[in-house]
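Changelog-adjacent note: as of this version, every example in the card shows the full chain rather than a window. The one below runs 375 residues end to end.
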Amino acid sequence: MVELAGIGPSPLAALILAELGADVVRVDRAAAPGALDWFPDGLRRSRPSIAVDLKSAAGPDVVRRLADQADVLIEGLRPGVTERLGLGPKECLASNPRLVYARMTGWGQTGPWADRVGHDITYAAITGVLHLSGGPEQPRPPANLLADFGGGTLYLLVGILAALHARQTTGRGQVVDAAMVDGAASLATMVYGLFNGGAWRDVRGANLLDGGAPFYDTYPCADGRFVAVGALEPPFYAALLAGLGLQFAERQDDVAAWPRHRAAIAEAFASRSRDEWLEVFDGTDACVAPVLGLAEAPGHPHLVARGTFAELDGRPVPRVAPRFSDTPGRDPGPEPVIGADTTTYLLDHGFSQAEVDALLANGAVRQADAETQRG
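Full-length structure tokens:
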């Protein structure tokens, strides 16, 4: 697989594929690394990096030659950029008809907003999904998880794998147009179903799953830390009330009583520390869990037992998911310096020493020097 370096969802897709066992190479810019190239997002790990100047005369041909050998090309550039470089689907599929050409954009390849700039927050905004996130007072994004990685990365992966599966029947590759707006909207399928059926109000904080219900929300404890409560089913709700020492005359689904129930539950949780409440609910079916921060989460006993996090350079990083019984994924590997693998990778993939020397000499590709790699 050939990945044209981008930001956000396409690098995560390439990372996941690499750690699931795919042979992925990242094509980075040949220019000296800038601030954005070294933004510490953790998404460059586990695959080699070659540095290519796609604006040079010979640079695009390097990528075309690699794409001719590939099953998949992933690009997350703005619509029309690869076409202007001579690396669009038309050119790549002409020389490699079995190629899956996977495109990741925010607005998609077509539509009146296709050429606009944007980020996760704007893509999520027009789909109704951002409207679901945050408190009653205003919508707020849960970092960039909605459109970038939920609606972007995961749907790009689905598209790539589906296209590879279809190729087994047709013998042909195809273009995958993965748009974050499409994926974000698809993520909200159930909510739209509830809304269309009259079971979801178009108001934040007024519904069963958005904090509107007192038994599906987060609560601060005496130490300022939080617990998450998901006691939807009646047995879970009964266990929650028993643990809190509460009794209500009204039924769980009595919406008119929810404000009073919420106040009582909040008062109870505020009387003890988070960890004291975890001891109370340990082993029960109350559906109560601690809200852990990024520094705390990797040490949770359940995640430790499952090996959800690995250690990389002395720091915890999430392992790839899902898991397989017969073909286990790879542990996270280091993030290479940009251009660290240019010479070796090209020599291993059909380029002669003379060709690589010429590409280096004319600046079409760049090999990171030993001093840079040590730094």
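Structural remarks: The radius of gyration is 25 Å.
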